Amino acid sequence: MSDTNARTKSWIEEGIESGFDDAWHERWYRQMEESGGNIIAAMRMRMVEISDERVVMEMPMGPAVRQGTGVFAAGALIQLADVAATSAYFQWASSKYPDGQPPFPLSIQISTNLLRNTDRGMIRSETVLTHKGRTIIVAESRVTDDAGRLLAIVTSTHTPAPTGR
Fold first, then answer.
1. Which residues pair with 141 in a beta bridge?
2. Which tens digit of pLDDT belongs to each residue from 40-72?
3. How many CA atoms lie within 13 A of 162 on its CB side?
4. 0.85 exceeded by the pTM?
5. 146 C-beta neighbours (distance < 10 Å), count
6. How buried is residue 89: exposed, middle or buried, by Cβ count under 10 Å (0-12/13-18/19+)?
């Protein structure tokens, strides 16, 4: 491919190429913060793996995600799963739009089974799309702790945001 026809790599392609290293995450957070902030940067979520089959993201324990008793806030567990589901949708849907920019997947329902919690370390969401429809997308996320213990099962339903507004 000539230089004039070279395509700019997407942020995901750059992440995969770098192994989602610390430098990639710092650039990702900085972009979000420069555009007004984002919960991903505020909660220090990290992309670990992304493919057409699944997305894996992690989030460390810290002041932004801790509730009063010292464990992860339930909302933080759910937020991690929701961001992973959104990332899974974008990975799947980007090839279905000519410009590679699918509409944002609005969460329209989230169901969570909170099984246990932890007060330390890193939590991980492994997310797969279980239904890939034109107007409805369903994701299932399993949130675990550092020891692999299941903390939550999150099922989320999304619909592509209307465009042209």
1. 127, 154
2. 989 999 999 999 889 999 999 999 999 999 999
3. 2
4. yes
5. 13
6. buried
